[in-house]
Amino acid sequence: MTRIFSGIQPSGELHIGNYLGAIKNWVALQQQFSGSLFCVVDYHAITGNYDPELLRQRRWDMARSLLAAGIDPQKAALFVQSDIPEHTELAWIFTTNTPLGDLERQTQFKDKVDRMESIPAGLLMYPVLQAADILLYRADKVPVGEDQVQHLELSRDTARRWNGRFGEGFFPEPQAVLTPTRRILGLDGKAKMSKSLGNTIGLLESDDEIWQKLRPAMTDPQRVRKSDPGRPEVCNIFSLHKAFSPAETVAEVDTNCRTAAWGCIDCKKVLHANMVQELTPIRASAQLLADEPSRVLDALADGARTARQIAQDTMREVKSRMGLDPMRAP
Ligand code: SF4
């Protein structure tokens, strides 16, 4: 049985970058692979300064958003990382078996520490915990964005190294499943959509809020006047059309942009209508979950039960192979 695992940091409510870049794919994968596991990775969110009250709220908002976006507790286990202590237990085991140089070479680590005076060790160890997240469930496939491929490579190395020392074939070497929608840029059309850059559209924002953000969003910078022909291939609005609009509309946008038959506002109005159509049921579902929070708690408790069972089985075997099983008289 192919097992899927993926995690997302509790950054609060989802934005459309998370939704298109990860969650929509998770929803499709849960139909294809029963027993998929999806995790709110809160231990990954404490590597820098943070406000505990805000983290509490964000974990909740993320879990509610994931359920609203279509994660189905009948088909997949949705749970919170810190509910399963085996994640950190396995992370320590992998820490003892990971060369420091492999961690220092990680691009994301180098990018982050360039701007820091004091570097938390947790930032360096982040990919080890990520390897533990995945391998704890002996997952075969991991849906990831392109920026996570290097971390996944480290998980594969970790599995290979541990297997070589303690038991060939125990941990599968997890394969990346790249999301069909590649990097979603923010409304500035420059950087990846990210809350910290303030260039997002929230998944649960109202129709009007979405329009207020779409209207001034960056398009083809060479299209200064409405009569200038545009280049959809360089326009982030066109990328969003490809994610939200039907194929015939995408073709129509392409033609009407290149021939200047549409202005950018016309184009954005069509996109807005298609976004609203897809996001309205998600928003309605999120409202129902807000009115009945026990449904979120029940889903997380069920998910944690399923995850814990697998995690405990893995750790029993790992510890046994490493000479760490319950003490017996010699
Ligand atoms: S018409 Fe649409 S695709 Fe073309 S530049 Fe304007 S917003 Fe972008």
Model description:
The protein is mainly α. 53% of the residues lie in helices and 7% in strands. β1 (5-8), α1 (16-32) and β2 (36-40) form a beta-alpha-beta unit. The radius of gyration is 22 Å and the shape is elongated. Residues 219-220, 223, 230, 232, 235, 237-238, 253, 257, 262, 264, 267-268 line the site of iron/sulfur cluster. Iron/sulfur cluster (SF4) binds next to α9, α10 and α11.
Rounded mean pLDDT is 93
The topology string of helices and strands comes to EHEHEHHHHEHEHHHHH
- The helix content is 40-55%
Please tally the helical runs, counting DSSP H or I stretches of 4 or more residues.
Answer: 12
Our estimate of the beta-strand percent is: 5-15%
Tell me the structural class: mainly alpha
The major pleated sheet works out as: 3 strands, parallel
The rounded distance between the terminal residues' Cα atoms is: 38 Å
Strand tally is 5
Bound molecules: iron/sulfur cluster
Strand order of the largest sheet: 1-2-3
Low-confidence stretches: none
Molecular shape? elongated
Using only CA atoms, what is the Rg? Answer: 22 Å
Describe what is shown at a glance:
With 330 residues, the protein is mostly helical. It has helices spanning 16-32, 52-69, 86-95, 100-104, 107-113, 121-135, 149-166, 207-214, 236-244, 247-258, 264-291, 294-321, and strands spanning 5-8, 36-40, 76-80, 141-144, 175-178. It has 12 helices and 5 strands.
Q: Which descriptors apply to this entry?
A:
two-stranded parallel sheet, binds iron/sulfur cluster, 53% helix, 330 residues, mainly alpha, elongated, three-stranded parallel β-sheet
